[in-house]
């Protein structure tokens, strides 16, 4: 295997005193370490005139290289086209999507700048792996500069069908940009269906017998393999963190504060794709329709603030503040607060301990590429007394987590019914469901995901053998 070069918008550069990285960063670092690899991306800084050269650092057998973005492009690239156009679009939220040609141009410029800064750092035998919606055009920009290496792309978020994608004025360009890759990976079979549908309807290209499409990039025909690779977590590692954290001071304080009530837990970035208002309404419906749970159950929601520079995120924050206040106003007793709503991040270990002592993990996105919280909740459980996962049918994780109670988050009463069922579920059924999910999680780890994507990419013919002259 040659050197692996990972490119992502943000880079998990190791910093002294920083908390443990998440499973994704750990998995990428594992494959990078194994190949003496390079991780390249945005420094998180902006500058009036960014330098064309990347800042470099070597640590733990991995090279890191980051660049700054121009002040003038930052808004258009990041808060604009990435997070206010592509993010809502790929999550099927056309009503929230905005479009601005200037922002589309800034997005392209930043991708070109990424390609220009990476090009001098590349060796001829490197395998390049680009991540996520912020960097879709990067391979096309690298090819324009003469890159001949294998380049793979993985989309962490859903891939919608063309009926949705076509709302984007640049829909065709997005698909053509994907043709510059040798391999395009998505999370689930469902997303792969969306991707294939887009190539068929948008560019008139159908996959061949082995799942690739052929199309023209800059005058030459290329073949792009399409496939699904479900991301996982560091299952064993997370289970260990949770086991230890359960005896830590935070979890012990939480347990003491609960008395003999049951805990329902939710945790995510404060993002409109995660279905947080729907979840609160589902919990309120539990209290309204199943009054036996009044004063017997508490719902703790951790909602780490995110993308505050985008208006739809600020609006969501206001909506949640109001909803939590309303539910507590309607149902609280002087000694019981039904909703504990924490609108900021908590430490990863603490979160793991909270998952372990929660009888129910409530994960109800309206759309989600995979959803790692669902997997972490399951990994964190005590095998002798596991809790129950309630999972939205719209999370990629629902494709493989059959032991979960599956809900449509738009139906508050259905959510209440599943909550009631979960809170009353006998130990035998909880164990059976948990064991079936845990078996899957032990097989499909984050490391396995990274290795299987890279193995598929490296088995493809080199781009030069792959060029079919038009
Ligand atoms: C994208 C896709 C896909 C959450 N709150 C806190 C906290 N978290 C951690 C969780 C988990 C991670 O953040 C969130 O991962 P998700 O997968 O749930 O969601 P996205 O951030 O939207 O990720 C998603 C993923 O990419 C990977 O491909 O699964 O579908 O949207 O690890 O535990 N961590 C800490 N404090 C918090 O308050 N420390």
Automatic annotation (TrEMBL):
Single Gene Ontology BP annotation: trehalose biosynthetic process
An MF annotation (GO) of this entry: alpha,alpha-trehalose-phosphate synthase (UDP-forming) activity
Xref: InterPro entries: Glyco_trans_20 (IPR001830)
Highest taxon above the source species: Bacteria
Homology family: Belongs to the glycosyltransferase 20 family.
Protein name listed in UniProt: Trehalose-6-phosphate synthase
Organism listed in the record: Teichococcus coralli
Taxon lineage: Bacteria, Pseudomonadati, Pseudomonadota, Alphaproteobacteria, Acetobacterales
